[in-house]
Amino acid sequence: MKITVLGAGGGEVTGSCYLVETSQARVLVDCGLFQGTEGAGGLNRPPLGASSARLNAVVLTHAHLDHVGRLPMLDQTGFAGPIHATPATIEMTGLILRDAAKIQQQDADRHNRNHGDEAPQHPLYTMEEVEAVLRLLKPVPYDEPVPVAPGIRACYAEAGHMLGSTSIKLFVEDGGVKHTIVFSGDLGPKGAPILRDFETFSQADMVFLESTYGDRDHQPFADTVRQFIEIVKRATEQKGKILVPTFAVGRAQLLTLLLASIFRQKIIAPFPVFLDSPMAIEASRIYARHSELFDEDMVAYLKAGPIAPDLATLKMSSTADDSKAINNCPGPCLIMAGAGMCTAGRILHHLRHNLGNPQAHVIIVGFQARGSLGRMLVDGARKVTIFGEPISVHAQVHTLGGFSAHAGQTDLLKWFEYLAPVKPRVMLTHGENGPRRALAQKITERFGLTPSLPALNEVIEF
Fold it and tell me: 87-115 and 278-289 helices cross at what angle (nearest 10)?
């Protein structure tokens, strides 16, 4: 039995993908897209190439693009097996993959209009390939082992990261030998609004643990809310525009809820808020259909009164014309638009129009991969390039890590402490090398275990 790290290894955060092989089965855990970092595009090819057709199944931890974004490439290789995921993850995967295919086609068309004679560009996959792979998705329950391939069962537990997100335990029997392997997936911070906190496992022979923020904790959520309110108050007094590069799934719903609460409590008088993302609009509808995944506080908030009156100034910008019209709206206003790392989408147009304005505020509320425009802004770049045009940065840029959908170091250790007593082998992935090493040191100090930091394409044998 062996496991190959086909993504999120070697200090790479994105591209999550693991191949579990036994004498009788081959299963992928996630099949994500590489994003942001230099050279990421060259890594985005079908996992395993043509041999992907020999996979028995895929199991998904959750629907973010860096965990599902290469699934349509499996259709290119002839894969026709089941893809197992929670019902909410199935809905979100459809939303995210269709959006990805559309953006890739738009990017290719734009490139080919300007440079097609030199080096024509093609999308990684088509909408037809997306639809083909979506037909393979099969729903699974939480907390109940289900067979996914010969000799392999999977049990899904709440991860608290996004709607439908899970950690997965694989029960593997091969040649009369039994193993349990746990994949944390992406873990959410404890106490974050809307979703329930992560659940834990207590038994594993090997653990693959994410380490996105393995070197630090986020600012406490309550402190981050206070900071957000102060920024918004200052911007509204200056009649400035507030731009929030927003992940359409998770962050958009969190910020919408936060603004509703601020308006309900009359902390700030309502002002125009634009949700400039068809994807986020649809994601919000999916959230509404899965209230069974909400935490107690969210359920209580909704019972206290309908949310619609609190959001009377919220405008949904579905079309391109709706988005362009926002440029004519004077401040104060707040614009949420994707992509969350400023790598594509409508936020680029808003940044292009407003980064040069010292009255504008940009609030970064999520992880920014190396090489992304969002990371450049976080790192204090005074000049950036958008659509080939140099843009001077005079806007005020704020980073609010407390809104992150990822667990910080303390919560990662809290999740792992339930597994530590059985002394599993620990593999730290889904993190840059600095955070990985820091988390490894903490695990060694606290639990007496020495984690491994696997490289990309490394094969781990039992």
Answer: 170
Return the DSSP state at 118: T
Q: Which of 377, 403, 429 is the last residue of a domain?
A: 403
Q: Which pLDDT value is given to residue 404?
A: 86
CA atoms within 13 A on the CB side of 85: 30
Q: Which residue, 32, 37, 398, 456, is CA-closest to 242?
A: 398
**Could you report the per-residue pLDDT of 382-426, keeping only the tens digit for each?**
999 999 899 999 999 999 978 888 999 999 999 999 999 999 999
Determine phi and psi for 396, rounding to 5 degrees. Answer: -85, 125
Strand ranges (E), 211-282: 241-245, 273-275
What phi, psi does 365 have (nearest 5°)? Answer: -120, 10
* Tokens encoding 151: 């000799």
3 state SS of 399: strand
Specify the residue for token string 């931890």: 61
In which domain, by residue range, is 245 found? 221-403
Is the domain of 396 the same as that of 438? Answer: no
Q: Would you say residue 41 has pLDDT above 80?
A: no
Between CA 375 and CA 280 the distance in angstroms is 22
Q: What is the number of structural domains in the chain?
A: 2
Output the CA–CA distances (angstroms, integers) from residue 125 to 41, 47, 267, 346, in the order listed.
13, 14, 46, 21
Give the separation between CA 375 and CA 367, rounded to whole angstroms: 8
Q: Tell me the mean pLDDT in the region 156-183.
A: 97
What's 195's DSSP letter? B
Query: Is residue 91 within 8 Å of 40, Cβ to Cβ?
Result: no
Domain boundary among 403, 433, 450: 403
Backbone angles phi, psi at 6, to 5 degrees: -95, 5
